[in-house]
């Protein structure tokens, strides 16, 4: 184990061993065993990644986890450190946290999980009073655009265009798709999101996990409570957290009871009648980001179809396709195996 990781262990802990533990699409993960001052075993989780991408990913996760832990310390493993390996080649970065035994297969109780999530959103407070974050954070290996903004509509537009730019770079041009992106950015986003801060309405920036699907949470085996990990946070409209639940990679949270239970704890913002369309809009970020990370993914077409729906309803234009319900996973129930190109289930 590199000396930098050993030095990041809490005072009084003596490194004993490390082993590979778990799986990750973008990093190497492991379990560290150490001895405490009383000679008892202590366990820590370490995540490793390389190069500039690794620096941004793990630095963002560390800062995200710190904010979540400071707000709700029972909802994420305690973060202990982040840094660069002492060895120079290859350029290697690490993230260190408490190791928590958890069941990552079981679906959480909707009421328990959403009450804890809503509590995080309610209790969090933006240090600037704005939407954004103080360091770049990631969803997978793709960095969010998180520059501070007073306007949520402006912030989401920048975030949305950031993932679209990366998707076009990785997956290539598509004229109708690009026309839809421009219309969503220039017309649909202002139409749906500016009213949230109009007519005297205030919109609280909340810390969100940033990549919340069931693959990034588990059940703490010691407490029986739900717990998060692998955060890529920023201060956002709280409903943004639910956008991922509409995507095809969500095989649990897409069920209506999760959204219903959440809304009991944190009611929809006004205008409440546009809640479903806002979630559809927010799902674009998750679907397009997934497509950028998984070339040839079906989610690119899903995102385009959802853009067509929103454009037809709020800002019609020529030159794009008609919305097709048979391509909408909320209508069809279609799911994919997360992070694998194995097709629809």
Automatic annotation (TrEMBL):
The keyword Transferase applies. It holds the Pfam family Fructosamin_kin. GO terms for molecular function: kinase activity; protein-ribulosamine 3-kinase activity. It is an enzyme of class 2 (transferase). InterPro entries: Fructo-/Ketosamine-3-kinase, Kinase-like_dom_sf. Its EC number is 2.7.1.172. Keywords: Kinase, Transferase. The keyword Iron does not apply. It catalyses: N(6)-D-ribulosyl-L-lysyl-[protein] + ATP = N(6)-(3-O-phospho-D-ribulosyl)-L-lysyl-[protein] + ADP + H(+). Gene3D superfamilies: 3.90.1200.10. This is protein-ribulosamine 3-kinase. It comes from Chaetomium strumarium.
